[in-house]
């Protein structure tokens, strides 16, 4: 996995109120490198970004999520893409819905803080495999945005939408060995805000609060659900099932919906190959998850409330993060 260095200034986040302000869509700005060498490629990614932008309401004037995008890919041949937040913020003074002791991807932290914490720095890094390979062999991208994916092609816009969802906050800090990605100095280990909502439906326990060895077992054997109000309401009152393969798959386990229950969802692990596989809009469940972690989304219920862990250190911390989303090629 590639590493991204998080460079954040230690300080206090000033939280701005949304009340009395005009609500507009979040702007998505993309820094394309030279590997995005055709307008068709650039248009496909911008289409995906604009789709998400139209579903998110800003919390401050000009709120912008900037993405660094490249086809210089560091993953294995059977992976399609990798996405990482370019920063993580820990600050219990942020609006946190009763779960203060977690890190927030920088784009989400900006949104909740009500201002741009990281200045001109991009919030999300995305890498795409220029030559994907699936079980059928080399499987090229389809860069059209009409949803008519040709035979033996992978719909790029769908996968870009999927990856942006990870960058916005459908990302976990829990690892297969039971360790957690972040440490609050002198206090405790923790994960992303997404992890506050991951619950074992059988034991009703939250793996983020378990001991490492117990957590490692839960992450491969548990009946894990996203236990947020919005996502649960969108799934007919049942917390949606998460993808929990055994053995643990780094960048895939826990951060996707279970394809056995949700075969057509944008956030299933593999979006498929060929006609009928394009998914050009997040579902109500996807929107519920993003609402749950803290984004302002149109037409979604209030997020769930959890009280996990103890109080901790306020402030922005320097961290070093692995790319947590690494999508495998579809099993055509």
Describe the largest sheet: 5 strands, mixed
Mean pLDDT: 85
Helix content: 10-25%
Number of domains: 1
Number of strands: 17
Verbal overview:
It is a single chain. With about 325 residues, the protein is α+β, with helices and mostly antiparallel strands. It is built from 6 helices and 17 strands.
Outline of the structure:
With 332 residues, this protein is α+β, with helices and mostly antiparallel strands. Helices cover 19% and strands 18% of the residues.
Layout of helices and strands, plus pairs?
Blueprint: E1 3-5, E2 27-32, H1 39-53, E3 64-70, E4 79-85, E5 88-89, E6 104-105, H2 106-113, E7 124-128, E8 133-134, E9 137-138, E10 141-142, E11 154-155, H3 156-168, E12 182-184, E13 188-190, E14 198-200, H4 212-221, E15 224-226, H5 229-234, H6 284-293, E16 320-322, E17 325-328
Parallel strand pairs: 2-3, 3-7, 10-11
Antiparallel strand pairs: 1-16, 4-7, 4-17, 5-6, 8-9, 12-13, 14-15
Helix pairs in contact: 1-3
Features:
single chain, 332 residues, alpha+beta, five-stranded mixed beta sheet, two-stranded antiparallel ribbon, 6 helices, 17 strands, disordered N terminus, disordered C terminus
């Amino acid at each position: 996995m590639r590493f991204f260095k998080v460079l954040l200034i230690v300080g206090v986040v000033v939280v701005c109120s949304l009340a009395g302000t005009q609500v507009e869509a979040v702007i998505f700005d993309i820094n394309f490198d030279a590997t995005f060498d055709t307008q068709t490629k650039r248009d496909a990614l911008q289409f995906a970004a604009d789709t998400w932008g139209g579903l998110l309401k800003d919390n401050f004037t000009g709120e912008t999520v900037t993405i660094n995008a490249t086809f210089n890919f560091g993953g294995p041949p059977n992976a399609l893409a990798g996405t990482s937040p370019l920063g993580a913020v820990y600050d219990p003074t942020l609006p946190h819905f009763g779960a203060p002791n977690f890190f927030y991807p920088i784009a989400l932290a900006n949104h909740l803080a009500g201002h741009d914490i990281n200045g001109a720095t991009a919030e999300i890094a995305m890498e795409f495999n220029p030559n994907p390979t699936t079980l059928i062999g080399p499987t090229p991208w389809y860069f059209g945005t009409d949803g008519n994916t040709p035979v033996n092609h992978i719909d790029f816009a769908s996968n870009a939408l999927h990856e942006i969802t990870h960058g916005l906050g459908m990302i976990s800090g829990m690892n297969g060995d039971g360790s957690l990605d972040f440490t609050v100095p002198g206090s405790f280990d923790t994960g992303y805000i997404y992890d506050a909502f991951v619950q074992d439906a059988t034991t009703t326990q939250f793996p983020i609060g378990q001991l490492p060895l117990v957590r490692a077992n839960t992450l491969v054997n548990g009946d894990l659900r996203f236990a947020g109000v919005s996502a649960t309401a969108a799934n007919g009152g049942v917390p949606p099932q998460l993808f929990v393969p055994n053995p643990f798959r780094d960048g895939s386990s826990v951060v996707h919906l279970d394809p056995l229950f949700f075969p057509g969802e944008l956030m299933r692990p593999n979006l498929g190959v060929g006609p009928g596989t394009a998914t050009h809009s997040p579902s109500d469940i996807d929107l519920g998850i993003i609402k749950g972690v803290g984004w302002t989304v149109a037409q979604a219920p209030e997020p769930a409330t959890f009280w996990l862990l103890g109080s901790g250190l306020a402030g922005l911390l320097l961290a070093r993060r692995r790319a947590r989303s690494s999508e495998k090629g579809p099993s055509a």
